[in-house]
Amino acid sequence: MTRRALERGAASTEAVVLAPTLLLLVALVAAVGSVALGEQNVTTTAHSAARAASLATSRQDAVDRVEDSFTWQLAQQGKSCTDLSVNVDASAFSTPPGEVAVVHSTISCTVPYAQLMPIPGLPGTRTVTVESTSPLDTFRERS
């Protein structure tokens, strides 16, 4: 038998073996990218919520603004938290105007994988924790 006859069909066998492997690799890259993009959306929303807290006039108003802003902006992106934890250090509101002060916030949000990836009904969740700091206006009245 010649060498050519022995290699007959080798290309189609290689294609059958490599095609599913390449498709699986592409799907894995897309899934990881979707999760990273979803986490970035949650992170950006948390930083925006911290900025909303720095625009408040009192401690309680700052805490309320963080949670309201975060949930509203996340809902605009079609996402929601199954477990939301908001911790705001608004002690900066007790500093007198003219002194530099910042509001610290920590937001922990558990998001279902089904919202992070375009695969409906996907089980599991991902917890994203974001710490953010936003400065208060130095010459703004505080209560």
Task: Describe what you observe in this structure.
- It comes from Brachybacterium sacelli.
- The structure is a single chain.
- The chain is an alpha+beta fold and 143 residues long.
- Helices cover 50% and strands 20% of the residues.
- It contains 4 helices and 3 strands, in the order αααββαβ.
- A 3-stranded antiparallel sheet has the order 1-2-3.
- The radius of gyration is 25 Å and the shape is elongated.
- The N and C termini lie far apart (93 Å).
- The relative contact order is 0.16.
Q: What is the topology?
A:
Blueprint: H1 3-6, H2 10-54, H3 59-76, E1 83-89, E2 102-112, H4 113-116, E3 125-135
Antiparallel strand pairs: 1-2, 2-3
Helix pairs in contact: 2-3
Organism: Brachybacterium sacelli
Protein name: Flp pilus assembly protein TadG
What is the gist of this entry?
The chain is an alpha+beta fold.
SSE string, helices as H and strands as E: HHHEEHE
Number of strands: 3
Determine the strand fraction and express it as a percent band: 15-25%
Low-confidence parts lasting 5 or more residues at pLDDT below 50?
Answer: none
Q: Describe the strand arrangement of the main beta sheet, using strand numbers.
A: 1-2-3
Instruction: Measure the end-to-end span.
Output: 93 Å
Structural class: alpha+beta
How large, in whole angstroms, is the Cα Rg?
25 Å
Helix content: 40-55%
Overall mean confidence score, pLDDT: 81
Shape verdict: elongated
Described by strand count, sense and barrel closure, the largest sheet is: 3 strands, antiparallel
